[in-house]
């Protein structure tokens, strides 16, 4: 009998986003087979208290899953510590986990994709992460799903055997990079992954995701991804703690289930080139950048 992965959903102070996230998650084909664990972080300031309590109130009425457990934190852990603790707990108990945050809308087949992939690659040690988000790529010659080096954080899944390699210590991670590895890690410097590592060390961000990707990269790991995204992030409206107003990464969600999974465990060259091209040109020309800047300033 197939064992479906539990879902860890991390929420904070955005009731409307949380409600939409749960609504779409509930419409997944495997929702009724899935255990949902909702981790509600404690409020950071008195200003956040009312919204946190509003979120917790709506969580009392969540149904449509095999089971629902709400974990209400008394203190504010912050997203990074909350994710690390929640994922660690669930992989210990269930050996696998699907991870969602409060600003992600899903396809009806997102949970199907995760569970298919978790079962298919369970014993493939090099496969360490399953991502559900993909950039809006223009190329058409990419298979429905493919392997790639970087780990996306907008809806993902993993196993206990992979998560045990998560290294939270930034100095331990950074000490293992030379110039060649920094280039490969940063998609030939087309993405600011290394800067995110430096910013974490300086205390400018508190990202669990960049440390998880670095942990995977340094182990020679690889990630599975869909060619067309199975999630979209609705948190780039300025309401999020960690999200700016940005439409570069908006996608049209794939309305169909994934029918193809790669059998060869290696990075897909065509997909890598398509992603590198997207990252090279994603900010557009000077005029497009100026328009986006004005839009952000005007709110």
Structural features, described:
The chain has 299 residues and is an alpha/beta fold. It has one domain: Spore Coat Polysaccharide Biosynthesis Protein SpsA, Chain A, CATH 3.90.550. Helix content is 39%, strand content 16%. It is built from eleven helices and ten strands. The strands form two sheets. Strands 3-2-1-4-8-6-9-7 form an eight-stranded mixed sheet, with helices on both faces. Strands 5-10 form a two-stranded antiparallel sheet. α2 (46-59) links the parallel β2 and β3 (67-72). α1 (15-26) runs parallel beside α2 (46-59). The radius of gyration is 19 Å and the shape is globular. The model is unreliable at 241-245 (pLDDT under 50).
Q: What's the count of strands? A: 10
How does the overall form come out from the CA principal axes?
A: globular
Alpha-carbon distance between the two ends: 51 Å
The average pLDDT score comes to: 93
Category by helix and strand content: alpha/beta
Kindly give the count of domains. 1
**What is Rg?**
19 Å
* Strand fraction: 15-25%
Q: What is the overall number of helices?
A: 11
Q: How are helices and strands ordered from N to C?
A: EHEHEHEEHEEEHHHHHEEHH
CATH hierarchy, class: Alpha Beta
Helix proportion range:
25-40%
Low-confidence stretches: 241-245
Q: What would CATH call the architecture? A: Alpha-Beta Complex
CATH topology: Spore Coat Polysaccharide Biosynthesis Protein SpsA, Chain A
Main β-sheet: number of strands, strand sense, barrel status?
8 strands, mixed
Strand and helix map with partners:
Blueprint: E1 7-11, H1 15-26, E2 35-40, H2 46-59, E3 67-72, H3 79-94, E4 96-101, E5 104-106, H4 110-120, E6 127-131, E7 145-148, E8 156-159, H5 160-163, H6 170-174, H7 179-185, H8 193-202, H9 208-218, E9 222-226, E10 231-233, H10 269-281, H11 286-298
Parallel strand pairs: 1-2, 1-4, 2-3, 6-9
Antiparallel strand pairs: 4-8, 5-10, 6-8, 7-9
Helix pairs in contact: 1-2
Protein name: Glycosyl transferase family 2
Pfam families: Glycos_transf_2
Domain Glycosyltransferase 2-like: 10-144
């Amino acid at each position: 009998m197939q064992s479906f992965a539990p879902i860890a959903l991390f929420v904070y102070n955005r009731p409307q986003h949380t409600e939409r996230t749960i609504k779409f998650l509930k419409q997944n084909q495997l929702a009724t087979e899935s255990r949902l664990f909702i981790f509600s972080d404690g409020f950071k300031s008195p200003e956040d208290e009312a919204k946190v309590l509003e979120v917790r109130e709506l969580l009392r009425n969540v149904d449509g899953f095999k089971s629902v457990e709400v974990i209400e934190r008394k203190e504010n852990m912050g997203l990074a510590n909350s994710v690390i603790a929640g994922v660690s707990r669930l992989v210990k108990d269930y050996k696998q986990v699907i991870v969602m945050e409060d600003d992600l809308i899903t396809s009806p087949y997102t949970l199907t994709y995760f569970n298919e992939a978790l079962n298919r690659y369970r014993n493939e040690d090099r496969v360490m992460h399953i991502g559900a988000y993909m950039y809006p790529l223009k190329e058409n010659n990419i298979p429905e799903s493919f392997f790639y080096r970087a780990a996306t954080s907008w809806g993902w899944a993993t196993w206990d055997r992979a998560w045990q390699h998560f290294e939270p210590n930034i100095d331990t991670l950074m000490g293992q990079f030379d110039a060649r590895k920094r280039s490969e890690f940063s998609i030939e410097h087309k993405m600011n992954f290394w800067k995110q590592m430096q910013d974490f060390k300086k205390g400018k961000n508190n990202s669990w995701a960049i440390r998880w990707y670095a942990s995977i990269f340094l182990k020679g790991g690889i990630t599975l991804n869909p060619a067309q995204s199975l999630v979209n992030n609705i948190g780039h409206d300025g309401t999020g703690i960690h999200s700016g107003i940005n439409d570069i990464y908006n996608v049209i969600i794939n309305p169909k289930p994934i029918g193809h999974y790669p059998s060869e465990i290696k990075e897909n060259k065509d997909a890598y080139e398509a992603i590198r091209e997207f990252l090279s040109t994603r900010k557009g020309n000077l005029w497009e950048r100026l328009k986006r800047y004005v839009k952000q300033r005007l709110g």
